[in-house]
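Lab channel / #folding
Pinned by the channel admin:
"Please post every new chain as: sequence first, then the structure tokens as a reply. Keep commentary short and put observations after the output so the thread stays searchable."

First post following the new format, from NK:
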Amino acid sequence: MPRSQRNDNSIDRTFTILADILLQIIPTTDREREAFTYYRDGMSAQSEGEYAEALQNYYKAMRLEIDPYDRSYILYNIGLIHTSNGEHTKALEYYFQALERNPFLPQALNNMAVICHYRGEQAIEQGEPEDSEAWFDQAAEYWKQAISLSPSNYIKAQNWLKITRRSKE
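Reply from TO:
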């Protein structure tokens, strides 16, 4: 049984009801409805930590979804899963793909910056200060882009940019 039909909790039930109403009101094709169902099931599985199931649903949604904007959110969520699993290189690839389809995803840029910052910290621990600076510089660039899209968010990143004197570069 598809996850959207299980309705395991009240939030899922409410979201499913609202999504079904919207799908009836908004003119959509069967293909678009099916893609959205897989996307919705992927989000539900992801929220419960069922990453393998979420990925299966997202990949099915990607095969059906043709709208670049909608695809960007599917790719972004796939990137989130890979980030959660510590697969940072894969995560970056999916965030890049999401941004290619929708350059107005500050959350993807933020996550890319967080990964680069983490790699910078790892480089410090491994005694590679030049590499760490390169990673930190890349993190700064991603954060600047995210902040330019969403100026009232990412306050910690804004402070880090100021403290490290990377805010004006």
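NK: The two ends are 53 Å apart (CA to CA).
TO: also worth noting, The longest helix spans residues 129-149.
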